[in-house]
Each structure stands twice: as structure tokens, then as C-alpha cells.
Amino acid sequence: MNKTVSFITDHFGKYNTSDIDSCLAVGGFTGLKRALGLTPADVIRTIADSGIQGRGGAAYSTGKKWQQAAAVPGEDKVVICNADEGEPCTFKDRALLENDPFRLIEGMAIAGYAVGAGHGYIYLREEYRHLKPRLEKAIEQARTCRWLGNHIQDSNFNFDITLYSGAGAYVCGEGSTLIESMEGKSGRPRIKPPYIKECGLFQKPTLVNNVETLAAAAAILEKGAEAFTAYGTEKSPGTKLISLAGNVKNPGAYEIPFGMTLREIIETIGGGLEEGRTLKLLQLGGASGSIAPAALLGTPYTYEDLNKAGLDVGSGGILVVDDRTSVIEFLKAIQDFFIHESCGKCTPCREGNRQIGRIIARYAEGAPRPDDLETARRFATIMCNCSFCGLGETAQSALLSAMRHFPEAFEADAFEAGVTGTKETIGERGLRV
Ligand SMILES: Cc1cc2nc3c(=O)[nH]c(=O)nc-3n(C[C@H](O)[C@H](O)[C@H](O)COP(=O)(O)O)c2cc1C
Ligand code: SF4
């Protein structure tokens, strides 16, 4: 039984994305129309009542964030849509951009109205450049039909959107780094305070929200907070877009109600694993997320239950890895990613990632040193506690959770004395753990 839902995704496939009239015919921009009939404070209350938490990874209450942004004094505020989506195995924002660009425009305008911003920017990851013409056309059409621009739908609200293309760095998904990059500086995070809500893009008060958060806000304004909270659990209300990837029969972006177990997601939505394969591990929330063994498949997909199990919703990525990949091979791929993406600004992340990379490489070659495990644990802990930004703080989630759930992968007797070689030779010798 397919348990997907369509609260945010209800317009997918129902209209021609290059024709705003076909979008309006299926109810596009109803949320913005409703919002314009409310006071900004009421719009924020609706979002707060929905209980939605930011979908970019940090899960901060969107209602609270908008309230704080609205409370910042100043006429010249900015809304930025974070469409950087650089987390490996995460592509749910792309699904929204591809299938319902007008929903995002609507959500950004609602956010602008609520917090008192007159301009919005979409920060689109470089790898999504093929979507630029589609988004540009959608913005242009929204302007022509007066869903953007001055006096939107004869109201006193003015709001326009500019599309900005990133240059392909993962760290630029972090809010302050994204702003640095938009200002033409190198992609490195800013020290806080001042917080970007007060002093963000070009020193203006700035609200940064994820694509899904903004699209959900439009759907919530259209259908009401109660329609959203009809899904999910008390602490994780609503629906979530997930990117189901890896060794499942039906990988893809899906909208699900919070509360399904991981097993249900993989089996009923993902179609299960290939015949004859068994689950080695899951990784939740992208490369910066923890990994989990099959024993945790009964965990409900909610913020609270995943948290109790040491996991996180994060970016909404769910990566399924079967028995063909060893834990060490997997960790090596993750580590290579972080070595490449560390911006180098702070020592714990820059040096910690490189040193841990060397240790994992020794494990992958079947020749770890006796103190490697403890050294890696120590470096990983320092990185979590002392890194300058979220990249370094979360880069070792996979390693630390592997030490917890797959201790056998690091045991010396998993490696024949003197065994060295590539991951393929290790696999042939049956040393995969
Ligand atoms: C290294 C790093 C990368 C990030 N990448 C993204 C991203 O690609 N998209 C995103 O929305 N948030 C990303 N975030 C989170 C943002 O900093 C920010 O919390 C988010 O855009 C806020 O939107 P939300 O409140 O709607 O979740 C990233 C954070 C870090 C530390
Ligand atoms: S943790 Fe430090 S080195 Fe790593 S990306 Fe952030 S600022 Fe750069």
C-alpha cells in the first residue's frame, strides 16, 4: 500500500510549469491571496499553529523564526530561499523546484509579507543550473500576473524575487556562508553575532528559509494549519518530503506523513531491497547524518523518535545501503566528501577531517594502527565540539554512530594480519563487516 500523501506536492504533474494560467487553474497562489487578506501577525500565527519546523536541517520552529524576523526593526528586509541542497543523496527541494516553481514563489511572497520584506532571492545551487530558465520564466510570469512586483493583487504589498546561482560548494548551504557568497566573498561562514536576522545580506535584516519550508508555508496558508496538523504526530506535525536513495527498488522524492516507521518507508514506498540482498545500514539526513543498523528499522520517522534513537531528520535524505558495501568503504566515501568540502577556515574541521581521512584509509586498506580507533574518536569529538560551523560539527556523525552500532567493523581481528590492498581485494577476502 502506498502511504505517500500530497499536501505540499498536490500540484505536482497537474499543471504546465511554464504556464502560470494552468497553475492558477489548479488553485495556485490561493495561499498568498488568503495571506493578503490577513494581517502579517495572523499569517505568522497560522504558521506557528501548524508547528512546522524548518526543513533545511536545523528544524528550528518556522513560526518563531518569522516572529523574530518580523520583530527586527527596519523597512529594507530580505527573504532568501535556500535552494543550495548540497547534502549528498538529498533531492527533495529539486523535486519542488522542478514540479511546482510557483509554489515556491508564493511561499517566498507570503514570508515577505509576514516579516515585512520587500525583496527575495533564490540561492540556487550551481548543479541545478538547468532549472534556471524554468524559475526565471516562472518569476517573470508571476510579475506579469501581479503575484510579484508592486501592489501585488491591488494590495499595498510590494515584493519581487531575484534568482542567484551558487558556485557549487556544500558549505554555502549554511545560512551565513550563503550570504557571504552572495556578497561576492569566498564561501566561509560568518562569526555570530550579529545574527543574520538583524544583519544579513548587505547588512539588511534577512530571513533564510529552505525551499520545502517556504512551499509548505504556501500550502498551509492555502489549506489551514489544521489541515497540516491532521498529519503526523503531536511533536512532529505535518508531512515531510524525503529523498529515498540507494539500494531500494524505487528511489525518489516522496511526501510522507510523519510517524511512518523506517521499515514502512523502505518497504512500502521504496519497494524494499533487491532480491537476495540484506540491509547493511541506513543513513539519515545526508552525509552529515548518523548511520543506523537494521535493528532500528522499527523507529518512527519523527523528530522525537529519531532523536531518541540517536538519528536525525536533517535534510530529509534516507540512504539505504545493502550488504554489498562495507561500513568502512561507506565511511571512506563520506570522509572524502568532507575533506573536499571543508572550507579550511577553522583548524578542527580542516585538520580533523584530513587526519580522520588518513585513519579511515588505513582501515580500508586493512592495516589500521593500534591507536587509530581512539585517535579517530578523540578527533571526531573535538570536531563536534570546537568547529566553527555546522559542517565540522556534524561531519563525524557517521563515524561516531558507526563506532556505536558497528564496533565489529573496527576490530583488529576483522583484518587478517598483514592484509593490505584496495577495497575490492578486502571484499574478495571476505573481510567486509
Ligand atoms: C554545512 C551546512 C550546509 C547546509 N546546507 C543547506 C542546504 O543546502 N539547504 C538548506 O535549506 N539548509 C542548509 N543548511 C541549513 C541552513 O543553515 C539553514 O538552517 C536553513 O536554510 C534555514 O532554513 P529553514 O529554517 O527553513 O530550515 C546547511 C547548514 C550547514 C551547516
Ligand atoms: S567547520 Fe570550519 S573549516 Fe569546516 S566548513 Fe565550517 S568554518 Fe570551514
Structural features, described:
By secondary structure, the chain is an alpha/beta fold. The chain has three domains: 20-229, NADH-ubiquinone oxidoreductase 51kDa subunit (Rossmann fold, 3-Layer(aba) Sandwich), CATH 3.40.50.11540; 239-322, Ubiquitin-like (UB roll) (Roll); 327-428, de novo design (two linked rop proteins), CATH 1.20.1440.230. The chain has 18 helices and nine strands. It has helices at residues 20-25, 30-36, 40-50, 62-71, 92-99, 101-115, 132-144, 175-182, 211-223, 225-229, 262-269, 303-308, 327-341, 347-364, 372-386, 390-394, 397-405, 423-428, and strands spanning 77-83, 117-124, 160-165, 206-210, 239-246, 252-257, 279-284, 291-292, 317-322. The strands form two sheets. The protein has a five-stranded mixed beta sheet with strand order 6-5-9-7-8. Strand 5 (239-246) and strand 6 (252-257) form a beta hairpin. Helix 3 crosses helix 6 (101-115) and helix 14 (347-364) runs antiparallel to helix 15 (372-386). The longest helix is centred in the C-terminal third of the chain and has 18 residues, at 347-364. The chain starts with 19 loop residues before the first helix and ends in a 5-residue tail after the last helix. Mean pLDDT is 94; it is low at 416-433. Residues 171, 188-189, 342-346, 349-350, 387-389, 391-392 line the site of iron/sulfur cluster. It comes from Acidaminobacter hydrogenoformans DSM 2784. Residues 328-373 form the NADH-ubiquinone oxidoreductase 51kDa subunit iron-sulphur binding domain. InterPro entries: NADH-UbQ_OxRdtase_51kDa_CS (IPR001949), Nuo51_FMN-bd (IPR011538), Nuo51_FMN-bd_sf (IPR037225), Nuop51_4Fe4S-bd (IPR019575), Nuop51_4Fe4S-bd_sf (IPR037207), Soluble_ligand-bd (IPR019554). Belongs to the complex I 51 kDa subunit family. Keywords: 4Fe-4S, Iron, Iron-sulfur, Metal-binding.
